[in-house]
Structure prediction request, 193 residues.
Amino acid sequence: MNTQTALRCGWCGTEQIYVDYHDHEWGVPERDGRTLWEKLILDGFQAGLSWITILKKRDNFRAAFDGFRPDLIASWTEEDITRLLANPGIVRHRGKIAGTIQSARAYQRIEQREGFANFIWQFQDGTVQQNQWESLSQVPAQTPVSQAMSKALKAEGFTFCGPTIVYAFMQATGMVNDHLLTCPCHARVAALA
Prediction:
């Protein structure tokens, strides 16, 4: 085991797809509204599953969901739900698929009103929270901010966006820097903020 592996955040393990995700995506501040929406939807699909399950199916999800283009998905019907339920490359959960369509419509309303990225980042006043965790046991599962964002998303019509899912989304999209202080990515992600 090399030094970087030993210091990397322990949650990502050693499987290459997970290590690459940790090293190059997780915690990097994302400010593109469509990409934020995709990540929120995928975090919703993770509910009850492990993130690596979703990560391994992510390309299949992108193909099945037309590149996660909300303007296309918002017009989908029961026929599209049936089509997706037959796709073995994704998580086949009727509620999550229907929720994605509903969330695409909510995205459209927010995007037109104020911009989805602006809506999401308002909960952090547009800035990245730089946490200073020394161990995984210090990292919370949810926070007052994730609770407030969850409540606001649900009020807009989003589904599968409880405060724990929303905090995972905040971590993934770099709204909070939850790389451990010992992780080589902590300083790099902090510099990107």
Q: What stands out?
A: The chain has eleven helices and two strands.
